[in-house]
Amino acid sequence: MAVTQAGRDADARTSGVPEADDFLNIDAHLSDAERDVRENVRSFVRERIKPSIERWYDEAVFPKEIVPEFAELGLLGMHLSGYGCGGKSAVEYGLACMELEAGDSGLRTFVSVQGSLAMSAIHKFGSEEQKQEWLPRMARGEAIGCFGLTEPTAGSDPASMKTFARREGSDWVLNGEKRWIGLATIADVAVVWARTDEEKNPVRGFLVPTDSAGFSARDITPKLSMRASIQCDVTLKDVSLPESAMLPEATGLGGPFACLNEARYGIIWGAMGAARDCYESALAYAKEREQFGRPIASFQLVQQKLVNMLIEVGKGTLLALHIGRMKDAGTLRPEHVSFGKLNNVREAIEIAREARTVFGGNGVTLDYPPMRHMSNLESVRTYEGTDEVHTLILGGAIAGIPAFR
Ligand code: TGC
Hints:
Blueprint: H1 5-15, H2 32-49, H3 53-59, H4 67-72, H5 90-103, H6 105-125, H7 128-139, E1 145-148, E2 164-168, E3 171-182, E4 189-195, E5 203-209, E6 215-219, E7 231-241, H8 254-288, E8 290-291, E9 294-295, H9 300-329, H10 334-358, H11 370-382, H12 387-399
Parallel strand pairs: 1-4
Antiparallel strand pairs: 2-3, 3-7, 4-5, 6-7, 8-9
Bound molecules: 3-thiaglutaryl-CoA (TGC).
């Protein structure tokens, strides 16, 4: 049965103890539809992800069987409209990311790569035929997409990419290497960004079916982070594509960067999901774990840690909601996204570290989530723009002087 806001308010009043997961009653700022999305994804994470995540992480497997269930929940291309996509708001999508990442960053990353990067590239820049061909199947989880921007020697600076698309008659022939490409070994289609010899805006996007001759992908292993997720090296060797494979509406680096905005936005929420899971698990453990004859939650130093976590989870969640409202209102700028990603991932890592200490030695095992989240968040802090990149995007925005070039 759905819990109404009035019911939650009454519970909080009568118990006198604010809920651990919503100390500030941020729920009061959500609509019923937003709370429904949040509750649906939260239940899914509780029932389908939490019971198995330690095993998936330990065995370093992405549970591909979960993809149809993500689709059933409406998580794939959730914030896109038409073509079988969910048509949900930015805040609803953000809440879903937060709940998923409370399960594991690797599983939230699947939804981000599929929806925010691959589907969003096709939705924003594809031809009608490309949209009809791929988006409905991707929304149903029947086709998986990946997004090839980063290269072995072009990470923070995608403008230095070497992957090249040359004209051969009316066809394109792609050659190059991509690295850290989520899902590439299980993908059906890769959105590949490549340099062309066009003078103005040489970077263009191509839809590459992964069964194309000359396309190959390999999992990057072993990893100490995002173990329940797939990141790959990709090689493109004389991959021949028809003219119709090019995304017609993407010209220049603004194309991939617009997709990165979408993925970075989801991270702002997701990081707070991981942080909340660390805080909640540390709070529960501290109330049960006894040392010196009493629960460690009674010790002032432990309480201070818990309070520091609580405050940063609350601030970061409010920031995510504010940024989500700006996105829905159409007032969000890329530097706002940098503000959110930089702050929330940085704080989430601190929270995970602090939470781990509450568990003492037990905190370094997979029996408890903080160290797994901490390891995952090291990747999250790095992909979609490092701390340094986002700091300098913000620096450039406030100083009015670009830091990079
Ligand atoms: P710059 O000259 O500033 O911009 C080039 C053109 O792009 C436009 N632009 C944006 N458009 C939309 N959103 C944004 N956030 C944008 N940022 C820039 C800009 O207006 C310009 O357009 P135009 O029309 O004037 O040409 O480009 P720059 O190269 O100097 O930018 C520097 C910097 C550092 C900000 C940029 O390179 C950057 O963001 N670097 C970080 C790259 C990054 O986040 N990489 C992660 C890629 S994710 C991935 O490949 C794998 S992870 C996901 C997975 O698991 O698969």
